[in-house]
Amino acid sequence: MAKNKKRRTDSSKIYRRILALVKLQWLRLLVAMLCMMLVASLTAATAYLVKPVLDEIFFNKNVRMLKLLPLAIIMLYILRGAAYFGQAYLMNYVGQSIIKRLRDQLYSHIQMLPLSFFHKHETGVLMARIINDVNIVKGMVSNAVTALLKDSFTIIGLLFVIFYRDWKLALIAITVFPAAVVPIVKFGRRVRQFSTRCQEAIADMSSLLHETFTGTRIVKAFAMEPYENKRFFERTLQLFKYEMKAVKIKSMSSPVMELLGGIGITFIIWYGGYKVITGTSTPGTFFSFMAALIMLYAPVKRISPLNNVIQEGLAAAVRIYDILDTDSDIIERQDAVELEPKDHGVVFRNVSFKYDEQLVLRNINLEVKSGEVIALVGVSGGGKTTLVNLIPRFYDVTEGAILIDGHDVRDVTIGSLRRQTGIVTQDPILFNDTIRNNITYGNLNASEADIIAAARAAYAYDFTQSFHDKFDTIVGESGVRLSGGEKQRICIARALLRNAPILILDEATSSLDTESELAVQRALENLMKGRTTFVIAHRLSTVRHADRIIVIVNGTIVEEGKHEELLALRGEYSKLHEMQFDDNR
Ligand SMILES: Nc1ncnc2c1ncn2[C@@H]1O[C@H](COP(=O)(O)OP(=O)(O)OP(=O)(O)O)[C@@H](O)[C@H]1O
Ligand SMILES: [Mg+2]
Fold first, then answer.
1. What share of the chain is helix, strand, coil (3-state, %, to 5)?
2. Spatial CA neighbour of 246 closest among 307, 196, 202
3. What is the total count of domains within the chain?
4. pTM here?
5. Cβ(382) – ligand 1 distance below 6 Å
6. Tens digits of residue pLDDT in 414-442
7. CB within 5 A of ion ligand 2: which residues?
């Protein structure tokens, strides 16, 4: 099997790709930016207004100002509130639409990837990409934009106020600031370290949850609940420890920062108070200065962990683009032709196939005429499922070619190829939906009469009608509420409704009792008429009426012919037959 080709995801290009995503919302972003600037300047204005309030109202006792200033303050807050709402709403709009777009892209891309991709990636991890990582990227985008615009503008505005009020004091305050930044950076780094570990612990935990909940029958059968509890408790304990470490650092950073701030402010009170007492400054100037300085705290605090958020976001984006950049190795040619719906002959020409390194099929040559029923038998692991999986291109051949009506399957469109095949897979796969919807999965346009006919032919009609909700019965996750044989019959009905010229039945009746199997068999025989059919079965009684039986051992065809011919050969087939005869006695 060719490996899933992966272009290396270049992290320097990640910025550009995310920017491209953001750009799609440029108008909203632009308005949001304007709102942010408005918020920033109005925040600075509130600090600025402290001086006239104090000096004019409280010291000069100016009555006109007593009327004007409160009105101005109210206006200011109303405006600022509106601008704040605007930027918050619009930024979240941009962020949420990035989430939606990335999720949709990821999901449809993953849907497009071949089976081999799913064999290499855990379900839980893929889910985490679509649920968590996308969120982290959104956090990065909205935090970065907000911080860069709103907070940095606010900081500039407030700095302007403090310099305007008292540039000497401002210079002192500014030199003290970097001293406070050092612990911020240090704390930030530690927090990030632990938040990464928390993320990993959460992924680990969800992986375990997925596995044990889907495998709950085995957990119970082997009475492993205490063991699974223990494994789960270990993970929650680990997560608890990391969370608490992060909490410790986070909770410590606040008081430390505040202490530093307090020391700074004490000094400024001392110096500013001295200036007011000696008459070189007014209380208004001083408090306006103080207000601006205190207001600086919040935006600086928000902007300081920005680097962490960006790093985390980039890491998540790399994980996302790693998947988006994984190309399918099942590629449709540009000039692919449509495969016409009609009766098809299938030819395997010198086909060899390997999963990764292991050669599973060797030199398969097989010519199947249109309408022929071919049975594939052989010991477990011989390569039967693999062989039929090559027909709808679940995998591509490593060597040789598969031809349908003379077309290499790689030369026709994947959609038209797969529309030609109805398949019942070895493990019956149903969705957690109604029986009707599971059957119509084969053909969404089927009429009720078609559904009933397919269900009847698959021997699935009578038992579904005995359920309270009949065809509207929900089957449960992967069909857990049905018996093995019932599941198989619904899968057969689904494949039949597809009404495809090539039918692949991989152990389709293995879970049925002899009586139902015979009945389904008979129904299938009618349906196989005129269809090119591949039947895989261990029970040789199932396949004895096939037009031709192919015996596959170790990836090669060792015998082929009709039942009696093969028995007469006294080779592999008769050996299998004898063993079953012994078993069945
Ligand atoms: N996804 C996979 N990746 C790697 N190896 C695989 C994969 N699927 C199957 N194999 C290997 O390929 C070989 C053939 O498997 P295959 O499923 O085709 O056998 P089979 O004849 O259908 O067996 P059974 O009768 O048990 O269904 C086995 O040795 C198996 O281990
Ligand atoms: Mg198989």
1. 65, 10, 20
2. 196
3. 2
4. 0.77
5. yes
6. 888 888 888 888 888 888 889 999 998 87
7. 385, 426
